[in-house]
Specification:
Number of domains of chain B: 6
Helix content of chain A: 40-55%
CATH architecture of the largest domain in chain B: 2-Layer Sandwich
Strand order of the largest sheet of chain B: 25-29-30-34-33-32-31
Helix content of chain B: 25-40%
Structural class of chain B: alpha+beta
CATH topology of the largest domain in chain B: BirA Bifunctional Protein, domain 2
Number of strands of chain B: 38
Distance between the termini of chain B: 91 Å
Number of strands of chain A: 9
Largest sheet of chain A: 7 strands, mixed
Mean pLDDT of chain A: 90
Oligomer: heterodimer
CATH superfamily of the largest domain in chain A: Bira Bifunctional Protein, Domain 2
Low-confidence stretches of chain B: none
Low-confidence stretches of chain A: none
Structural class of chain A: alpha+beta
CATH superfamily of the largest domain in chain B: Bira Bifunctional Protein, Domain 2
Strand order of the largest sheet of chain A: 1-4-5-9-8-7-6
Shape of chain B: elongated
Largest interface: A-B, 90 and 95 residues
Strand content of chain A: 15-25%
CATH architecture of the largest domain in chain A: 2-Layer Sandwich
Strand content of chain B: 25-35%
Number of helices of chain A: 12
Chain lengths: ~350, ~800
Amino acid sequence: MKNEIRRIGEEALRELKELDGTEALQELKVKVLGKKGSLTALLRKMGSLGPEERPIIGQVVNEMRSRLEQAWEERSAELDLMFLQKRLATERIDITLPGARVRRGHHHPVTQIVEEIEDIFLGMGFQIAEGPEIETDYYNFEALNLPKDHPAREMQDSFYITEEILLRTQTSPVQIRTMEKLCPALPVKIIAPGKVYRNDDDATHSPMFHQVEGLVVDSGIRLSDLKGILLNFSRQMFGESREIRLRPSFFPFTEPSAEVDISCMLCGGAGCRLCKGSGWIEVLGSGMVHPKVIEMGGYNPKEVTGFAFGMGVERIAMLKYGIEDMRLLFDNDLRFLQQF
Amino acid sequence: MKVSLEWLRELVDVDQSAEELAETLTRGGIEVEEVVNLNKGFEKVVIGEIVSITKHPDADRLLVCAVNVGQEIITIVTAAQNLQVGDRVPAALVGSTLPNGLAIRKSKLRGIVSYGMFCSHEELLLEVTVGLERSTEGILILPTEAPIGENVGTYLGREDSILDLELYPNRPDCLAMANVAREVASLTGKKPHLPKWSEQDPVLILPTPTDLQIIIEEAELCWRYAGLVVEEVHIVPSPEWMQRRLKAAGIRPINNIVDITNYCMMEMGQPLHAFDRDKISGNVHVRAAYPDEIIVSLDGVERKLQADTLIIADDLQPLAVAGVMGGLNSEVTKNTTRLLIESAHFSSVSVRRTSRRLGLRSEASNRYEKGINAYGCVATLGRVCELILELGAGRPVALVDEVKNLPPHRQVSLSVQQTATILGVELKTAEIRQVLENLNFSYLEKDGLFNVGIPTYRADITIEVDLIEEVARLIGFDRIPTTLPQGDLTQGRRTAEQEFRRQLRKALAQSGMDEVITYSFTRASADAQWGSEKHSIPLLNPLREELGVMRTSLVPGLLDVAARNVARRNTDVSIFEIGNTYWGEEQPLRKLPREELRVAGLAVGKTGRHWLNQPVNYDFYYLKGILEGLAVEFGLPLDYRIPKNQSLRHPGRSADVYLQNQCIGFLGEMHPSLEKEWGLERVVLFELEFTALFAQMRQTVRARSIPRFPAIQRDLAVVVADETPADAVMSKMRKLGGELLQQVEIFDVYKGNPIPDDRKSLAFSLRYQSLERTLTDEEVNQLNTRVLEGIQQEFSAEWRK
């Protein structure tokens, strides 16, 4: 019986080495070790053996069994490896071919700048306010300390619909509308992005363009606060090493008024083509809200002060992306838009 | 305002260069737009004397000249034929770049080296009046006394620099040299030395004329009218220095009298006008024009005046349009012997209206429009008297000064505390005192409170913050620190609507559409086609006719963009815009119109060829797919219905888009009949109301648990009539399948062999599932059969096994 066991075992081991498929391997395993397998059949016969022989034969069977199992595992691993290598050898693609196309659209550069500005000011606790693009003369001019026949009205060439209704020339009317809505709550802390319109069309002017207005009104607001907020904004928008400088200016709705220059993002202030050699680039207008405007908004200028600022989105987009002609932004040529 | 540095130096000490001064002024709030160096191009052009002229040995038309340029004698080869030995001429030395841009280099002409070039008028951009008469034939020949070796620019008095001031509307005072000098003095801490007539309230004493009265009939429009009578007038050209300064300021010299009036206007800011006294009959009236009254202005044009135009007239006829232009009938000519020189204050509004209406703008009207100092009228005439006597131009004999109204002298208080609070900078009383000293403002001070007397020329200062601005300007904005607002913490957050707009834009871009921004105004015809002619709002003064109305639809803008791109061979266009449309409810508008935000998309062409992907046609289903994507993302139950009476869209390829049973827009292919007009073929569009989408947008998600029991899938293909909408079949299936039929999807649509022409095959995949138990095959088979039979009955469908 011992011999019989050895014969079956050795034969199985021999066969095993020649098999080259996992299915065949499994079949052989069943044929020898399965319920109806040859080795199993031998084991069944063990009942006919004497008690002294049983443990010996049992041991032989078990030894053979574990040898076979081990061999199976080894062969099986060998085969797996072989198949893997075969698979890897045949599965090869040209990784330089372009991938499947997932078409992505592009956000208009103006939108991107507006959102960037919004996000910076949201982070500083500002709300976003909006107002109508078609405005009354009152909100667009009069309430902003620009009475009829004020010479400063000529700084802006307006599109009129009637004598009293026009396309807003600035986002500043949102200042008044917001104050009227919020008064007497404090603080007022908003930015107002939106479209504005002026009768002008050349490489640096478009009849429609975008502005972002800012307004903060509270007790004890100082010009230095304006400077702090705008420095913070400029660094987030144009880079951490930016500096700002204020220059006295004039806007009817602020007093004192200041133009805000930032150190040139191209040359860092040394002077270059972009900043026309000055090292500074004018990016926005600002100032302390004129007491009359605070009053028009419903607040008492003796109790609260405020600052306001306004910037042209297209100008910032042009600076940031190096766009030479503003009209490109509204020409909407796909070759232009798909760069952003 | 063009400021000559040479002139300015007479009025204030300037120890800065033109560029430095420009920076000082700009940083002080008087923006200098440009500094023009009049000597530019003359730097290396010197006066040379021609020592000898010989013919060029190898060229008939060239002459070789030896030229004494002061330090040395150089050779210049020239083709000019108007030169003689001993002539003094401008010689441009090697290295010059002339005013006309020509660069001079050492050059060899037929073997002889030329070390420079003689210049003509043209190269130096000079007027032909400069130099001897022979100059017209070629090289500019200077008078024989011109000093050899001197710079030609210096010789011609071109040393000057011009600062071009870009003045803000609050500083019209700086339209006067005297006030610019004051400003420079304030900003640099220097003292100005102005003519005594620029001081506050100087007195001019002359007899009152007996034969002339000023009658102001419109006191609202004319506050003051002063007239100076001058006799024994002698009209000649004004002296060179005066002409030079006027030219530097951009004013053409005419004769001594006109030049004096212009010079005084530039210096003092007060416009003046000289009438021929002998052409004035009777008194001078300042009155409104009679209807259709006519005046022939100085430029010889006959002008019909509107009834509210302010004019100067004598007893018989108009003499001048107040503040805008004189009349030809009272013009000063070379025969004039007696003058009336007007120095008046007219309403800025009235002058602006009139000058606009007549299309006449001048240095004088510009000053009136911006506002002048009514206190300066007589003082300026004092300065006129001084110059008339100095130039021997005549004899001032009488003065009439009619005053109707003078603005009050203003006192404005300024608190040190308030200044520090507004500016956010600690300031000492002494610093503010110094600022007021530098401004030369009078003041009284007590316990940190200043009471400041505002000079009459600074009409812009009316309240405390105006003075605070002066303080900030003079101490310099750089002194102000950077701080942050001290108040309560505020939360920065977009409103739900703002956030939705942003998400919608993102979703569309991620679907492969490019965002465009088009003008809010468009052609009336295009807007009428796609929007509502009844509601579109016309502009009174559009930039161009094709931008004449406010849009009531975004579609024309998108079609324009697409057509432009296709014409430029960007053939595959998939774009969208989120923007306002504007709806007027009445004509003309009495109240603000409704602004309705919309989202619109357009696609034409297809995705480009790709080795892996099949090109996707930009058709109805492409855009519908994008809208369905939005519907899923934002939980919007959009449904699509067959439109009624559609002339703009392809009747077979268009849908109205509904949300909660309300039509909120459309989706579809443009009607083929419009293709030629727009230059686009097979273009698909959608336009939806933003507010409706926002209103129905899913607010929050309620999560459902994942079913624990397995689903059973069945496919079902049926053949139905071609016109049967797939959606009708699917709805019916859902109804028949009940709640166990969890999902129905269509996975194939087939037309063609062996299906008859008027029918189509639709293949569906149905998913059955229970949330409570495992379904048996038998149960599902029964249910599936019921669905099939129902469909067969309802749509006369055949089961396609």
